[in-house]
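REVIEWER CHECKLIST
Item 1: Sequence provided? yes
Item 2: Single chain? yes
Item 3: Sequence as submitted:
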Amino acid sequence: MSTADAPLPKAPVVEGARPHMLVVPAPYYTQIVDGLREGAERILREAGATFDVLDVAGALELAAAVRLAVRGRRRYDGYVVLGCVVKGETDHYEHVCREAMAGLTQVALQFALCLGNGLLTVATEAQALERSGQDGHNKGAEAAAAALVQISAARWLDAV
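Item 4: Structure as written out by the authors:
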């Protein structure tokens, strides 16, 4: 299913206590990541969640920041990571995308985290702008909704 075919993200209902989330943006592409963040925060507010925001330098730092949060004293029910990697003329794009995504997957699986992944990996900035606008399919909103659905699943399974 393409983004154009997908339903617009809506805030899921999460039973129990209000979820407390950590939103981790990597604002290298400020306009794009600000749009993703607006979408994520809209979904979290609609769901009644509370959240903190922790900015990091770039995509490669996202997984490490989530890992640091897990080790920290503040407790979160879920995490939403936001960022953007745009393909350039070298193979650096492939390395950053592969390692950033692998790091996020590893930390989520290792610690059984409810993690919404809003890291865009795109060929052009225009593609990223389409996916971060407030007038349609916002991948930040989708990532927040995904994290909330995972929290619901974890609570239903008594996994938290």
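Item 5: Key structural point noted by reviewer: The radius of gyration is 15 Å.
Item 6: Recommendation: ____
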